[in-house]
Amino acid sequence: MAAKTIEPTRRDFMTITAGAFAAVGAAASLWPFIDQMNPDASALSLASIEVDLAPVQEGQAITVMWRGKPVFIRHRTAEEIEKAKAVSLSELPDPEARNMNLEAGAPANDINRVKDKNEKWLVLIGICTHLGCIPKGQGIADVKGEYGGWFCPCHGSHYDTAGRIRKGPAPRNLDVPPFNFLSETKIKIG
Amino acid sequence: MAHESTYKPGNALSKWFDDRLPVLRLMHDQFGVFPMPRNLNYLWTFGGILTFFLVVQVLSGVVLAMHYVPHESMAFASVEHIMRDVNWGWLLRYMHANGGSMFFLAVYLHIIRGMYYGSYKAPREILWILGVFIFLAMMATAFMGYSLVWGQMSFWAVTVITNLFSSLDAIWSGLGTAIVEWIWGGFAVGNPTLNRLYSLHYLLPFVIFGLVLLHIWALHVPGSNNPTGIEIKTKSDSISFHPYYTVKDGFAMSAFIVLFAFFIFYAPNFLSHPDNYIEADPLVTPPHIVPEWYFLPFYAILRAIPDKLLGVIALFASILLLLFIPWLDTSKVKSARYRPIYKWFFALFVISGLVLGYLGAKAPEGWYLIVGRIATAYYFLHLLVIMPVVGWIEKPTAMPGSITESVLGKGAGGGTPKGAAAAPERR
After folding, report:
1. Shortest CA distance to A161 belongs to which of A101, A72, A55, A71?
2. Best interface-test mutation with B: which of A103, A142, A155, A158 has the largest number of B CBs within 10 A?
3. pLDDT class for B416, splitting at 50, 70, 90?
4. What ipTM does the predicted assembly reach?
């Protein structure tokens, strides 16, 4: 064997050790700097609220705050329910139910937009899925859009009486938050 | 920095100092005797004006921060406290708010000047790219600063703009939402969001300051471009920075400050929106969300495109594409003064920007939407197609042989060698 093996020197060892130490150290200490910006323990702890539905008359709607977001609760009229049921899935820009109480991918039939087949009560996160504005339609005198549900004034998205996107730039139906009926007239969101 | 130093310390103390920290030498070489083209017009004064406004914003911002409270329940009230109670608070706040607008007005004119006279072309590509980074950092700083007022427009601007990132959900489900909640520090825009925007609003001007130093450094390697786009070739083409351009810059700056003062004292809220004097309410979206005027063209591009993700991509692309124009423009001639075809397309480009700015404040419906789409299409067509193609097919008009000749006419350039006049540069 004529080839001479070059032995690593002490300097090679120190260069590699210091370089590896610096790289691993920098990468490991980066995470706390990034993760500190994520929602903190106090934000996560505001997880659930209870809402009394008894005073909400048919045709009325209320807005409550859950995790810093507005939640729309509408007591739908029979007419509004019929209107929502009459829509076929092929007419919907977003055919998924977006209901956190169901598994992902459920079709956006009207029955999948409510909880426990209780069609009277429509509960939605009241944030336009386009860029986060609050759609109009909660007040009696509000513009409700071409489909009688909600209308987002920012960029012109129209939602129907099941909170499904029908027209405009919003990509998804309004989300249905996770909630349970504690009694006939009381729900717990979250 | 590419020139031999001519600094001569005047006394023993300055010599002692120069041997240890040659900062006076640097000032002398770069801002005293630095050779500048002799033919610069007033469009070349915006660099100085912009530096002035960076200083105004930092100084007024530092003192406003002594009175402002970055908390969701106190921010709006603390701004009113500055307006009503703090000594000269109204003046400092109006300086800071209108200073931002003046800063953007100057930067747009600076950018248009650079584009018209081809200041981005070799050897100034890095200079131009640093400029685009400064522009991006300015936009981020201005956006964050506007949010701190915590009025309705502030709050909803933050909501809409941070939600742009949720469009990434279309690429990978949940990614966009995770990013947006990371930015917010919660499930909606709230106190954690306000706090971090404040922290970053204080940081970014110093980042801008660092970028500006690099921008000036990159400028002083090749030296300034000029209206002919011909480089300095002989001594008669140049004059020293001081006193010629310190005076010219100073005069233009004074004129610009008159405009600034007009807004501060006679129309302090003209460029703002009345809805921002209503405290932020997370339950009520204002019927008409409008960004500050300097963001309107980009907002119009966002809204011209019906798809959420593509709209966001177009918004970012409209700015990031500027990074590539040194290579998108294929013409060998720098100044549009000698480009008979491109000149008109460039005018259209500026008009499309102005039209987009006008439409950004209108509801995206009917004719407004159609015109907005046409102007958006032209904006991208100009950068991606017209710049390369016109550069190939266009025949430039006759150019003067040198900067001196452009000023004094043929044969009058005392110091111009004959050879220089006979051979126009870069044809």
Report:
1. A72
2. A155
3. very low
4. 0.80
Q: In terms of DSSP H, where are the helices of A62-168?
A: 78-85
CB A39 to CB B311 under 8 A?
no
Interface list for A 82-121 with B (CB within 8 A): none
Structure tokens that stand for B400 in this block = 């003067």
Contacts of A57 (CB under 8 A, 6+ apart): A75
Give pLDDT, residue B342: 97
Gap between the Cα atoms of A100 and A86, Å rounded: 23
Is B364 part of the contact surface with chain A (CB cutoff 8 Å)? yes
Structural domains of chain B, count: 1
CA torsion sign for B199, B202, B206, B211 is positive
User: What is residue B98's predicted lDDT score, i.e. its pLDDT?
Assistant: 97
pLDDT tens-digit series, residues B190-231: 999 999 999 999 999 999 999 999 999 999 999 999 999 999
CATH number of the CATH domain containing B42: 1.20.810.10
Per residue in B336-385, pLDDT tens?
999 999 999 999 999 999 999 999 998 777 899 899 999 999 999 999 99
**A47: exposed, middle or buried (Cβ count in 10 Å: 0-12, 13-18, 19+):** exposed
Domain A44-189 CATH assignment equals 3.40.50.300? no
* Residues ≥6 apart with Cβ < 8 Å to B417: B234
Q: What angle do CA A57, A58, A64 make, to 5 degrees?
A: 60
Residue A134 near chain B (CB below 8 Å): yes
Residue B5 lies in a domain: no
Has residue B265 been placed in a domain? yes
Domain-located, residue B13: no
**Tokens 């909170």 found at:** A163
- Which chain A residues have a beta carbon less than 8 Å from that of B363? 156
Q: Is residue B27 part of a domain?
A: no
H-assigned helices in B4-124: 12-20, 23-27, 46-64, 75-84, 89-116
Cβ–Cβ gap B156/A39 under 8 Å: no
Q: Provide CB contacts within 8 A for B51, sequence distance 6+.
A: B212
pTM: 0.88
pLDDT score of A3:
67
- Record: contact A171-B285, CB cut-off 8 A: no
In terms of CA atoms, which chain A residue is nearest residue B185?
A: A39
